[in-house]
Amino acid sequence: MLGFGELCLLGAFIASGFAAFATLAGCDDKHRALEKSALISSAASLVLLTLVMLILAIALLTKNYQFDYVAYYCSQHLPWYYGLSALWVGQAGSLLLWAWFLGILAMIFRFASSRKSDTLRQRAFGLLMANTCFLIATMVFAADPMARSVGTPTEGAGLSPLLQHPAMLIHPPIIFLGYAAWAIPFALATAALINKRFDTTWIQQARPWALFAWAVLGAGILLGAEWAYEELGWGGYWGWDPVENGSLIPWLLGTAFIHTMMTWRRRGIMKKTTVALAIATFAMCNFATFLTRSGIFSSLHAFSQSPIGWLFLALMLVLALAGGILIYQRRKELAPENQITSAMSREAMVAMTTVALLLLATVTCLGTLSVALSDALVGTKITVGPPFYNNVLAPTGLLILTATALAPLLRWGSTPSAPEKRMLKISATVGVLTMMGIVVGGATHYLLIAVTGIVAFAVAVLLCSLWLDAKRRPCDNYWASLVRCLREKRNQYAGFFVHLGFFALAIGIVGSSLGTQRHEVSLMQGQTIEWAGRSIQLVDIVDRQLPDKLVAGAVLEVSRIGDVPVKLTPEQHLHLLQNEWTTEVAIQSDWSGDLYMILHGGTEDGGVRLTLVDNPRMRWLWLGGLTMLLGATVSLWPNKKAARQNYNQPAEFSEQPQGLKAA
User: At CB < 8 A and 24+ separation, what contacts does 580-588 make?
Assistant: First the structure.
């Protein structure tokens, strides 16, 4: 099976390389035979990659230690589902998964449209196959998932206990699916630059893929935050870890790209910025891979030191340099068709949001590289902490929130109308009154006051926008008019629904960051304490042995006044194979916040030591992420009428006004 797997991997490398060459060589001359052979090679490459995936998956499930990869990440007592998840935990396996995803998406992209012979699409497909070939080449020459073990061990090293968590079953695949999907907008933007195709055709083709990539990568980041919150046992969900930052940077750039695509399509402006962001977003996906594989950073998420990371850094630099040269050469064709004539227009808000997102991405990148850069430049390692990032996040976040809140009542290319200005004043009054109310209620931190006021203003703006849109439609029944409005402007209001998710996310981030309380306590069995509005009693101390680990836990009853007590059991696990302790926290969650319990161990007098953390508004954070994902899904839902218009009308007029201004 090992030998067959090696042959399949080598065959996939040759087939993908030929597909890339044949597609790029034949797309200009319309060489049908070459195009056909390229398609056959692409399909063969995907089939062979699928076989390699199946071989490795079967080896993991059957614990075949002849595979070096299986011996390194599996063990006899590892449940089958975590054994299968080991496929994307290791360096070689994750590259295999990424290449497989990219191969699938490339084929879907090639056949998803009736315009299969379009030169733009053909060239973009060739670039996608070239990237697939690069990933497979990395496995063939540097990280072979089919490598044979030295000897055949009877037991494997096992999966890291920290990775044995439900979120890790899907978090890495979602991240790599997001990276693979961002290759398509990049390929289309690059093909447009090469072909000098600067109408909105490439944007129409790139938009759904960009939304898909943005939503998938965002979901992966959210799942990673949930894993960190539940598994690492420190009470937080985001620590500005270098690898966390690696996936955040392309998500921020991708958010800006989705916005600037709208300005190009609507107003013919920000063209250079749009293609630059398409290239930069994909380039930073490769930068994120460099962070996890170079070994220059210490992180729970990172792989061991390897030269593979430097290959991805080199690819990122090549993409950035080539993209910059192409944009410079096409600078005249990319000149704006219009100017931003009003600070109170949608394109002005998009420009402001884009600058804020770029600033945040730049600061995140510099902070992430601070250790490596300082060591190289001055010989001293300088590490920056969360305050460095938060000092930039606060003002830029408020700027993005404000621009996003204004969007529903702003117009493209002009100032708001008289009714819209009146609604903006009403909404501003709602926001100011809300801020005054929470100040009277005891709020003192400027950030909490500002975010609450902006969110209230945003909700009022959205309701006013809905009311105005419904009133403009000739219909006797207001509610029927409202339903018709939502149906006709589905994509636009799906984008505004994403805004609501962003506001909920902001409430969760600010609430949990500013209101967190921690309390270190030692409890004896039967002892009760009152803390953070809760009654907490230690009911029992339990110990048990499982085949692969020892478990020590504390059973506690938690209740608020008038509520039914809830049992929580924080635990400590000793994983026997790795001889490693892990913390299993217990969380009681409601809409006011989370009670987060960390068990540290026992005391000499028979009690337990605990850390209690009160994290306010945590549910709002998860709700915000899910709402943003739902809004993007609605925006991606196929629209047959719009699809017909896309192919029957000029590109510039093929869609009704719409947009996703998610931050």
Answer: 580/161, 582/161, 582/162, 582/231, 582/233, 583/232, 583/233, 584/233, 584/553, 585/230, 585/233, 586/556, 587/230, 588/558
In angstroms, the CA 339 to CA 298 distance is 46
Residue 650, pLDDT score: 35
Check residue 296 and give its pLDDT.
65
CA distance 259 to 184: 17
Q: At 94, phi and psi to the nearest 5?
A: -70, -35
Would you call 334 exposed, middle or buried from its count of C-beta atoms within 10 A (0-12, 13-18, 19+)? Answer: buried
Local confidence band at 2 (pLDDT 50, 70, 90 cut-offs): confident
Question: Which residues are 521's β-sheet partners?
Answer: 610
Q: What is the largest CA-CA distance in the chain?
A: 84
- Cβ-count burial 417-449 (b if 16+ within 10 Å, e if not): eeebeebbeebbebbeebbeeeeeeeeeeebbb
Q: CA-CA distances (angstroms) from residue 382 to 371, 378, 612? A: 5, 10, 32
Tokens describing residue 323: 């993209």
Q: How far does Cα 440 stand from its chain's mean position?
A: 38
Percent of the chain with pLDDT over 90: 70
CA-to-CA dists, residue 61 to 55, 161, 163, 167, angstroms? 10, 18, 17, 19
The whole-angstrom separation of Cα 456 and Cα 327 is: 41
SS (H, E, C) 416-435: CCHHHHHHHHHHHHHHHHHH
Give the up-direction half-sphere exposure of residue 323: CA atoms within 13 A in the CB hemisphere: 23
Q: Give the 3-state DSSP-derived string for 457-479, with helices as H, strands as E and coil as C.
A: HHHHHHHHHHHHHHHHCCCCCHH
Helix (H) or strand (E) holding 400: helix 386-406
Instruction: Note whether 38 and 23 are within 8 A (CB).
Output: yes
Task: For the chain, give the number of residues.
Answer: 663
Return the structure tokens found at 1: 């099976």
189 contacts 105 by C-beta, under 8 angstroms:
no
**CA-based nearest residue to 217, from 628, 645, 642, 648:** 628
301 band by pLDDT with thresholds 50, 70 and 90: low
Taking the complete model, does pTM exceed 0.85, yes or no?
A: yes
Strands 566-568 and 534-546: unpaired
- What is the predicted pLDDT for the residue at 661? 33
List the one residue out of 285, 324, 29, 242 whose CA is nearest residue 134.
285
Using the structure block, give the residue that is written with the tokens 């105005």. Answer: 468
Residue 657 pLDDT > 50, yes or no? no
Confidence of residue 117 (pLDDT cuts 50, 70, 90): low
Enumerate domains of the chain plus CATH numbers. 1-159 (1.20.120), 517-619 (no CATH)
- Phi and psi at residue 564, to the nearest 5°: -75, 135
C-alpha–C-alpha distance, residues 422 and 352, integer Å: 23
Q: Kindly tell me the burial class for residue 550, based on how many C-beta atoms sit within 10 Å of its own C-beta (0-12, 13-18, 19 or more).
A: middle
Rounded Cα distance between 591 and 228, Å, is 20
Tokens of 571: 């635990």
Q: Identify the CA nearest to 519 among candidates 536, 542, 540, 507.
A: 536
Three-state secondary structure call for residue 568? strand
What is the rounded CA–CA span in Å between residue 627 and residue 663? 13
Nearest to 171 by CA among 22, 343, 333, 300: 300
Which candidate, 228, 403, 382, 209, places its Cα nearest to that of 300? 228
